[in-house]
Design brief:
Layout lengths: L3 H20 L4 H53 L6 H65 L2 H15 L4 H11 L6 E5 L2 E2 L8 H9 L5 E2 L6 E3 L7 H5 L2
Parallel strand pairs: 1-4
Antiparallel strand pairs: 1-2, 3-4
Helix pairs in contact: 1-4, 2-3
Amino acid sequence: MEYPIEILAVVAHVDQRLDELNEDFGDLPQIIEQKTFKLGEQTKLVEETKSILKDVKSFCSRTKITLVELKDKEEKLTEQQFHVRNNKEFDAISNEIKTLKEEHKKLSEQLRAEGLKEENLVRILESQEADLEKLKVELAEKEQEHSALTEGQNDELEELKAKKEKLVVMLPKALYTDYARIRLMHLDAAVRVYKNSCSGCYNAIPAQKIVELRNNRNQILICENCGRIVTPEDYIVDDEMVDNL
């Protein structure tokens, strides 16, 4: 492993093994991310509903007390009407009673409206909390599934990532940049020559190019058909080589 193209071939093999390990997860990481987001949104929704419900209950509680106080005042004023000294006092008390009754009526109507609102909010909150618990269970199941998959893979993943990091620093920056860019289109961004063809797209490679690649390890060959980097046919990388790094 003296030349950049040989190092890149090993990097490509390490990436292949990493891809195979990550394939086991499928779309599980994305599902966990989505459910975590939904759980956060649902939690906020529940808290908002609880806050509104708390305000409604507080209003109803205060209003009930106020209604009792208004009724007491009305009864006291009604009693006072029997002890007035003239019509002027009677009319003044009557007007005050009228104001109290109007305020009592207005508050009673508001209390009924808020009471209905409270009942609706309680039902909504029950539904929201049920959805929240469902999301918690679903997320826990997916996280448990993810943990089961990673339990036997974490060590290998970390080991492969560490080996790749050591290899990458040995490569010319421009070469690895090209390789990483190609991997956005082809996961197997670096492939061997196989039977005078690119083993990525099976397009034939000119014989002269193959000879140059074989004799000059510093040369970088790009498949004219698929754009993959082509590595020498006689340089074979296997798991044993990677494990011994």
